[in-house]
Amino acid sequence: MSEVINIGLDDGHSSIKVFLGLNVTDEPIQIQMLSRAKIGENRNLNLINNNNDDATIVIETESGVEKFWVSENHQRDIIDTRSKDYPYSNLNLALVNQALRKVRTFFNGSNQLKIVAGLPANQFYDKNIGHINHELVQKKVDSLKRLAKSYAESEEDLPRLEAVAVKIIPEGYGILTDLMYDNDLQETEFSESVSEYGCVVIDIGGRTVDVVSISSGNKEPIGMLSFDKGVLYLREKIKSKLTERLNLTQSPNDNLLDKAIETNWYGKQGSKSGVEVSQILSEAYDEHVREIYSDIKDILGSNEAFGGVIISGGGAILLGEKMKDIVEEHHPNIDVYVPNESQFSNARGFWKLTYLLDF
To answer: Cα separation of 19 and 17, whole Å?
Structure first.
């Protein structure tokens, strides 16, 4: 029997994050891949088909096959991941397959995977029924166990990746686990603090902002909420502002938007056609942070918040410090933390949970 590889998988609406632990020099084995795909095959003749950056992923279904062209280079006509069924869709499975292909070289020839992944807090726990949404959780488990039904078109003869064990937990709880346990799975000082005082986790994701309140004493979630205020909505806001303020005839494509966020320039930096847009971006960030705060301010008045507030997730790369500032401005007695490499916080916590949970 081949070695089972432990995988922390944060398969978000904006990007997929995978964490596999540390290498021999204690460096993290991790990747982040944008959640961008189109229906059909790779149609870019200038790229080698099915390499690690640009691949046709095939999903076997009861009625045949469905193909997705997965590429971070896509600029327009990308499939919107913000659908209700995204967590257990063929699109999600294709994106997960491609992300795992990028780290397969670290699997030591194994194709057997133990995976912990997440669901948005408001989907994991359904307030309407008053308990965990076991039906949705099972759909997510079953979807990841279909991994062996997916493959890159040029690698049909390779052994298929197989999820031999899967657990699903609420997003945000992975962030907490990452802070409560070190890489040797030993409890940290923060874990002791949570035990005594509790805390609140704000996970800024692609589609949603998930808020998980942890009670003192048992380190278990006592409240889970989600709001559709993730970075994909922020990107729409930035596109709208750039189009209006720069008098553009069409909305920026995703490549131009990525460059603008990275460099604070729309178009070629320093050229006659390039425009410095840091003020426009800052306005969008400030506006979005105020909207998030408006949704969560009541939670920050709870007893659990006095144990500390953690701001993390992929969106914390753009919004973490601004979110920290507004929380500290209105709640000066609360300690606020933004973890390092916060985009991997859930995936790191999920990886630790592959060892800590019973499967």
So the answer is: 7
